[in-house]
Design goal:
There is one protein chain. By secondary structure, this protein is α+β, with helices and mostly antiparallel strands. Helix content is 17%, strand content 39%. The strands form three sheets. Strands 1, 2, 3, 4, 5, 10, 15, 16 and 17 form a nine-stranded mixed sheet that branches. Helix 4 links the parallel strand 7 and strand 8. The chain is globular and about 60 Å long. 39% of the residues are buried.
Length: 309
C-alpha cells in the first residue's frame, strides 16, 4: 500500500469578460475499491454554490453556475489517498462496460490486429466465441498492452478529444487518451469488460489516462447484462505496464466523455487560455490505515474568500 498526496490546480483566463458560465468538475478522487480518500479539499474562484452528484459509474461531480461577468475561473483540488492495487479493485461490473461507444467502436483494421496478434496463442479459440476464461484475462490483457504499446507512438498534437480509437490506431499516433480508447475497444471486442480511467500517477505534469479490465469471480457468459462481482485491474498501454500503487482514479467510465475532469459553457466573445498542473507525491503511511472502500469524512468544498476574487 502507498499513501499519495495530490495537488491539482487549473486556471482558465478569458480575453474578455464572460457571463452565464456553467461548469462541471470531476477533479476530486473518491473512495472506491482499492483506493481510500482520507482527506480532500476543493477551492473554487470565483466563489459559487456547488451541487454534487454521483453517477452510475461511481464518480462524484461538482456542478456550478457563475452569473456575473468574470475574466478568470480556477480551482485547486487536494487529496490524500491510500492506494492498494495489488489484488485489484473490488467493484461490480455493469453491462455498459461490455459494449462499444462512438469513441471505441471497432474498425476492420482493429479487429484484424486483434486476430493477428493472438492467432498463434492460447487465446485464439476464446476469441472466436468472444469469451476469455477468467484465469486468462490478465495474461491476455498484458499481451495486448505490450502489443499496443509497440504499435502506437506517443505524439501530442496528432489527435484531439473527438478522435476515435479506430482513427488513432490507423495513424499509429496519439496520446494516453487514445491508447486507453484503443485498449478498451480491443478488450470489449474480445469479450472482456473494460473501463476508461482518468486519473493521476506519481510525478508532475497533467492528468493521465489508462484502462482497467474486469475479472469476474466466476466464469460467466459474455452476454449477461447484470452487475456481477469481481475485481478491476489497471493497465497503462502508454507506458506498457500494470498499474501499481502509484495510480489514483479521478473518474471512470466508458470513454473520455464520461470522465472529463472539467467541462463548461459560457456566454461571451472571448478566447480562453488554460493552465493545468498536477503533482502527485508519496507520503508516509499513517499509523491508522483505513479499510479499503471505507467512506472517510472529508471536506469536499471550500469557496474562495471574497477578498481573493
Amino acid at each position: 500500500m502507498k499513501v499519495l498526496d495530490i495537488d491539482y490546480t487549473m486556471s482558465l483566463e478569458f480575453s474578455n469578460p464572460v457571463i452565464n458560465h456553467y461548469f462541471i468538475l470531476r477533479c476530486v478522487p473518491v473512495s472506491r475499491g482499492s483506493q481510500t480518500v482520507t482527506a480532500r479539499l476543493l477551492t473554487i474562484d470565483p466563489s459559487v454554490t456547488l451541487k454534487t452528484n454521483r453517477d452510475i459509474f461511481g464518480n462524484i461531480s461538482y456542478r456550478g453556475y457563475i452569473k456575473d461577468a468574470h475574466n478568470k475561473f480556477s480551482f485547486k483540488a487536494t487529496a490524500t489517498v491510500q492506494v492498494n492495487n495489488q489484488q485489484g479493485s473490488r467493484e461490480p461490473c455493469i453491462s455498459l462496460y461490455k459494449y462499444p461507444t462512438p469513441l471505441t467502436s471497432v474498425s476492420e483494421q482493429l479487429s484484424n490486429f486483434l486476430i493477428k496478434t493472438f492467432s498463434e496463442t492460447e487465446f485464439e479459440p476464446a476469441l472466436k466465441i468472444k469469451k476469455i476464461p477468467k484465469n486468462q484475462i490478465l495474461s491476455f490483457s498484458e499481451k495486448l498492452c505490450s502489443d499496443l504499446h509497440e504499435w502506437m507512438e506517443y505524439k501530442p498534437g496528432t489527435t484531439n478529444v473527438r478522435t476515435t480509437a479506430a482513427q488513432a490506431f490507423e495513424q499509429k499516433q496519439g496520446v494516453c487518451q487514445d491508447f486507453a480508447h484503443i485498449f478498451c475497444s480491443l478488450c470489449r471486442h474480445a469479450g472482456i469488460a473494460a473501463r476508461y480511467i482518468c486519473g493521476t500517477s506519481k510525478g508532475e505534469g497533467s492528468t493521465h489516462a489508462w484502462a482497467e479490465v474486469f475479472v469476474p469471480d466466476e466464469d460467466i457468459s459474455p452476454f449477461c447484462n447484470f452487475e456481477i462481482p469481481g475485481r478491476w485491474y489497471g493497465f497503462d498501454p502508454t507506458r506498457n505496464k500494470r498499474c501499481n500503487n502509484e495510480y489514483v482514479i479521478l473518474a471512470a467510465g466508458r470513454d473520455y466523455n464520461d470522465c472529463q475532469v472539467d467541462r463548461g459553457i459560457f456566454r461571451g466573445n472571448a478566447d480562453q487560455t488554460q493552465t493545468v498542473f498536477v503533482k502527485t507525491t508519496e507520503t508516509e503511511v499513517p499509523d491508522y490505515v483505513a479499510p479499503a472502500g471505507i467512506v472517510v469524512p472529508t471536506t469536499p468544498y471550500i469557496p474562495a474568500k471574497p477578498h481573493e476574487q
